[in-house]
């Protein structure tokens, strides 16, 4: 799911998130390097990730598990 979520977030253009692999787990991570990034930008990350993740889950989860 995280791989799909990463692809959708990057394609959506609202934010850029990268990944890391820790103890074999594929994780999402925010890495802020742009000096124009604001506190509001940082605070928006959880909402954007949650919204796109829910959409992906609805589309990918088998009907029997919904």
Automatic annotation (TrEMBL):
Name assigned to this protein: Uncharacterized protein
Taxonomic source organism: marine sediment metagenome
